[in-house]
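fold-stage: in
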Amino acid sequence: MPVVDFGRTSEDYSKHRMGFPDAFFTRLARENVLRPGLRAVDVGSGTGTVARGLARHGCSVTALDVSASMLAAGRQLASEAGLPIDSREAPAEATGLPSGAFDLVTAGQCWHWFDRPAAAREAARLLVPDGKLVIAHLDWISLPGNVVAATEALMDAFNPNPPDHARFGCGVGLYPQWLRDVSDADFTPLETFSFDVLLPYTHESWRGRSRASAMVGATLPPDDVERFDAAHARLLAERFPHDALDIPHRVFALIATRP
């Protein structure tokens, strides 16, 4: 089984992988989950797309990830945006942070990579009473004949035996199983929401976004990544020649409260 290493994709990830849309953070603010002054921990932060969104809304943010290269890319992006984020190399299951010291824990596009029961227990340990855990996803949606379906078919051809979770949730973008994870860690009550959004990509940025996926750049050897990218460029030119691509995505979020 190939090892997944998103650190190998940090350049493409930081340049081409879009973060959660503004509407996601607006919804959290409307639900009073997100507000200025909160102490927040973003686990599995990667290049910090969620962490930066929290910081823009006035939170004091600690960003955690196991990949040093992803954190380095995130620090650069945060610096360019003028956002103070404390980035640390640590797993979601054992953060090393103090107990009961945070109002909000977020996990964006990463929960399936964790030891989920352990990560839920660690989030509960970090949070103050009535603190919130937000598990969120932003998944592209494959529809018959669309560019996502064509790209996924090409990924399957190059990576027919992907690692566990590499395509977790693809196609549907909903994660009801996460409710069991947080319920077992004594979070209650639970709320969920989802909505669809079109995200704009060019041919270049969609190729970069695809390379930054677990199915390609995080698992395939470099030569295979190059061959995939060349085949992807030909596919886009032949079947989707307009450079402006509207890629359908679905946002899903679970909001869990620590009693």
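fold-stage: in (second)
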Amino acid sequence: MSPALNESLGVRLRAVTPDQPMHWLRRGWQDLRACPLPGLLHGAFMAAFGLILLSLAGQRFWFLAGAFSGFLLVAPIAATGLYAVSRELARGARPNLATALRMWRPNKPTLIGFGLLLALAGTGWVLTSAALIRAFAGAPVNSPLDFLRVVLLAREGHLFEAWMFLGAVLAAPVFASSVVSIPLLLDRRIGLWAAVLTSWRVVLAAPGLMSLWAALLMGITLLGMLPALLGLIVVVPLLAHASWHAYTDLVDASPLPARS
């Protein structure tokens, strides 16, 4: 048995119920209310990044469609500091902004390396999405209305279906690899591949529940993007804190040594 698989099997999976995703969202909201500043600043940064992207891309929605959907691939690593806030709240501590910022120190090579891999996956999807829309759209896609008319509501061809299929092919393994692994890497002393294997074990053990959780993450994020991206200020920390509680409910990592 490989060391990574052996280490992964040292993490026990917990039994889950279909109503737990809503429970994770409620607990995430409680964490945001208990320590709002780090979360709201993370959300404001994400919203500002999106607005900068909008201004730079201008009338190139064929590029933005992939960029904004690719945001979902790299969001888990961007939320690392908020996982730390939720962990401290669960311990009865009083976290603050410094608690979140400490997670970005350069002495965490595993998290940084995983973040680079997620960024590479996101970049690959952005380029693939842009190439697909540019090559097969029946007319220029320069605005959201163009995307609705030319891609989503097109009477001929299956461009939207192909776009969604390719996105799902890329997003599904990324989600399966990261949904538990990033908070696990933050919380416990475990190797990267063992953490990824643990994440896959969780998804394979409860595919229906984890599909529902992925759909909730995507749907709530898209709703947060609608009001000029300003909804992300609240949505980003809400989902980050909720994802921490998903991790603690899905796996029992207590056999592994804790990180400070």
